[in-house]
Amino acid sequence: MGSFPRLRGKAGMGNTIVGHWCWREDCPQPVRSGAVYRHSDGPRDNAVQMGNEQARPAAAAGRRARRLQCGALSCNAPAVSFPGYDFTSHHLEVRPGIRMHYLDEGPRDGEVVVMLHGNPSWSYYWRHLVHGLRDRWRCIVPDHIGMGLSDKPDDRPIATPRYDYTLRSRVDDLSTLLEGIGITGPVTLAVHDWGGLIGFSWALGHPSRVKRLVILNTAAFPMPAAKTMPWQLSLGRDYFLGEVLIRGANAFAEGAARIGVARPMPRDVRRAYVAPYDSWRNRLAVIRFIQDIPLGSGDRAWPLLDAVGRALPSFANRPAFIGWGLKDFVFDHHFLDRFRADLPQAEVMAFEDAAHYVLEDKHEVLVPAIRGFLDRHPVI
Length: 380
What we know:
By secondary structure, the protein is an alpha/beta fold. The protein folds into two domains: 1-81, no CATH class; 82-376, Rossmann fold. The chain is 32% helix and 20% strand. Strands 6-7-9-8-10-11-12-13 form an eight-stranded mixed sheet, with helices on both faces. It starts with 6 loop residues before the first strand and ends with a helix. The model is unreliable at 1-79 (pLDDT under 50).
């Protein structure tokens, strides 16, 4: 089962909590205008549920305690903190009753870098890059619906609100988010894992706005012919047993946090990665991502994947940076070779001693390299 970050912070008014979660029976009020928060009661709450021994009894007793997400406000409660994630949380309702969590760090007039995570990670994956860029670049980092600190709606026909966990929905959400926060100009796309397919699918409709590319262990084309589908993904995609393991035991998120790196994560970092996926309900998006992997024309995401793959060479005239962990058992050298072929001018840093979460293994090298890349290729 998922493990939980330790509750930290001192109770009492004036304890400023940024980007953390807290619980209390009554809802504190924001202490300044613009604070981002919400609360809800009982089983209709789609907020991520995290806690320790003190928080669990309230949840077990019918989830009577109200859950408040603290943006920039003070509250009389302890907070769940994530190491290195000292950011202000924001939310936007991207569909009726469904809110997306995102980071918006850096100067409002800075060049925009949109960072898109994959499965089973969340915006936490990008924390090192945000720290490395936010002095000059505006960093927009969403959590996809069902992931991270975003709402986690059900997808059953009777659910209200209901969410369709498909690639098309993800792309539409990204459009709504960027429009909703007033980002209508040029952007740099930074993508990882499913973020590549989501980002490049969005780019199909906005090619003139994509000025630079930062590509990390991802795909934007069908699986290479020489690549075999990993059994771990096949198990989750095609078999009920896989869904039971992923939703019941958090096998995918826990496994990725361990075998997705060449350099073992510190325990508190590993806990932060899996923290949003702490229950059967909160792992719905994780399994739906896997089940949405397009392998052929009969899959719902195939038309978008096919279109993205055919369009990828048209982005070859953009500055591109590729960072790759070669120990990734999913996005291995076959995927890197395809990116190199379609984007022949790209700067490439490939690491024999890094795996899927390449920013975890190599952030000390990659962050300054990406910063240098952005410096050399300013948006004109």
